[in-house]
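ok new one. same drill as before - structure tokens go in, u give me an amino acid for every spot. 476 of them this time. try not to just spam alanines like last time pls lmao
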């Protein structure tokens, strides 16, 4: 389905009116849901194409980029050479965030080169599709090793290493040239797990121009752990909260699109318009806490029965499953659902990056990441864009997004948080006015702090400082 979608985008990029654009976007989202596959979902999300990459003459593209650069806080990056080094190319958060930055830089006319350090040698539909996506935006994709990679690193104005693991690319590839490249490296770190704190990954961290991290909580964690465990100091550290894409906001703010998507998804799940739908939207893994969410969801039925409350019929949907390679953990989730007789109230949906239809369909988002939580948690601000209250763990970047009692409710991570989450589920199920009020406040918070232009402003400040440091070092 990806090919017809791409051609549709190309033909629709010729400047038709807003109504046509909304209809076109809505159709693409519906097709993405129907495809129910991550690769297709991402390619269709890519319908959110950079207008600079619309089919047309090179002069038209150049003119469009000149205009984009003039109106963008990243305009100073025009004609700069930027090398992006990702530890992998997959549908996980880190690589996708780096791709978004790549497209923002391409819009203002940067020359962007992408390297994937841990690329699988096997044919992989996801990798192929994501590389095709980048190429369509004018991002050059190079092998991780070889003279061309070395030459690009040496001539680049800026090198961005993405995730801690990407540090493993430096020594084996650059070898004697590592000292020349370090002063122009910006290291974008997303990890919050302890096993990433290995000297083999981050030994060069103190010598780079700066580290960019998605939340204050994560930044403080890295400063403490590198100092105490590795005996190294963090470089200049910049906190850059993420922002929602313009395309997602278009859907979120389009009442017709939301209504159509809501009806479509609910019909596919067998959920009525008056029913209450809670969702957890993350890749299915123990760290994301789907097991504890389902336990809390089951307990909420017991609380409702004990208190004899009248609430709408409640359903849960777990978006992030993998029907092609079910893990032992997911099998345990399904077994729990069957064992407790709630299989008619719980739905599993295959992973997809076309999240807008599900956000339009649900009433409450549950962000249940465990341990130290999410570094940031992009799905949280995406849900708030759809005026959804968020039930989140009081850990990690979620605490910097969700205002407890205002835009949502927080509960402890771990098993001790199950009872609290169950009570919060019942609370929102019982009080529609609270759900609506929290959703509205969450939307206002996103508009104030977490839009794409806010993210671009914050990243622009970082890139300017890093480029200045690099220039000063080269002159010295």
């Amino acid at each position: 389905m990806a090919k017809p979608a791409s051609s549709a985008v190309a033909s629709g990029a010729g400047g038709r009116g807003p109504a046509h654009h909304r209809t076109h976007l809505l159709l693409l989202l519906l097709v993405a849901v129907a495809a129910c596959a991550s690769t297709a979902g991402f390619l269709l999300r890519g319908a959110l194409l950079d207008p600079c990459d619309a089919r047309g003459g090179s002069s038209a593209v150049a003119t469009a980029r000149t205009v984009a650069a003039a109106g963008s806080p990243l305009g100073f990056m025009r004609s700069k050479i930027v090398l992006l080094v990702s530890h992998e190319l997959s549908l996980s958060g880190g690589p996708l965030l780096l791709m978004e930055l790549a497209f923002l830089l391409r819009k203002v006319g940067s020359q962007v080169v992408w390297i994937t350090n841990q690329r699988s040698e096997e044919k992989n539909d996801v990798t192929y599709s994501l590389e095709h996506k980048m190429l369509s935006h004018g991002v050059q994709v190079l092998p991780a090793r070889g003279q061309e990679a070395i030459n690009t690193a040496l001539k680049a104005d800026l090198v961005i290493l993405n995730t801690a693991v990407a540090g493993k690319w430096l020594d084996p590839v650059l070898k004697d040239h590592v000292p020349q490249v370090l002063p122009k490296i910006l290291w974008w770190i997303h990890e919050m797990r302890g096993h990433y704190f290995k000297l083999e990954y981050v030994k060069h961290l103190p010598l780079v121009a700066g580290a960019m991290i998605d939340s204050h909580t994560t930044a403080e964690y890295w400063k403490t752990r590198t100092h105490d465990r590795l005996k190294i100091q963090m470089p200049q550290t910049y906190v850059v909260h993420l922002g929602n894409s313009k395309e997602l906001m278009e859907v979120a703010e389009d009442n017709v699109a939301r209504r159509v998507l809501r009806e479509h998804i609910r019909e596919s799940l067998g959920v009525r318009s008056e029913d209450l739908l809670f969702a957890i939207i993350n890749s299915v893994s123990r760290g994301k806490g789907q097991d504890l969410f389902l336990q809390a969801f089951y307990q909420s039925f017991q609380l409702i029965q004990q208190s004899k409350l009248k609430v709408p019929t409640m359903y849960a949907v777990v978006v992030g499953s993998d029907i092609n390679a079910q893990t032992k953990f997911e099998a345990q989730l399904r077994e729990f659902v069957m064992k407790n007789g709630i299989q008619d109230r719980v739905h599993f949906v295959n992973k997809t990056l076309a999240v807008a239809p599900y956000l339009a369909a649900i009433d409450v988002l549950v962000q249940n990441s465990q341990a130290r939580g999410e570094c940031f948690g992009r799905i949280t601000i995406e849900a708030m864009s759809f005026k959804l209250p968020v039930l989140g763990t009081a850990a990690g970047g979620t605490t910097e997004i969700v205002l407890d009692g205002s835009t949502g409710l927080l509960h402890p991570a771990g098993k001790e948080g199950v009872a609290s989450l169950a009570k919060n589920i019942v609370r929102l199920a019982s009080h529609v006015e609270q759900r609506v009020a929290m959703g509205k406040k969450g939307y206002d918070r996103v508009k104030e702090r977490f839009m794409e232009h806010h993210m671009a402003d914050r990243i622009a400040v970082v890139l300017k400082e890093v480029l200045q440091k690099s220039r000063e070092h080269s002159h010295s």
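The first helix runs from residue 2 to 12. and btw The chain has three domains: 1-49, 50-243+453-475, 271-449.
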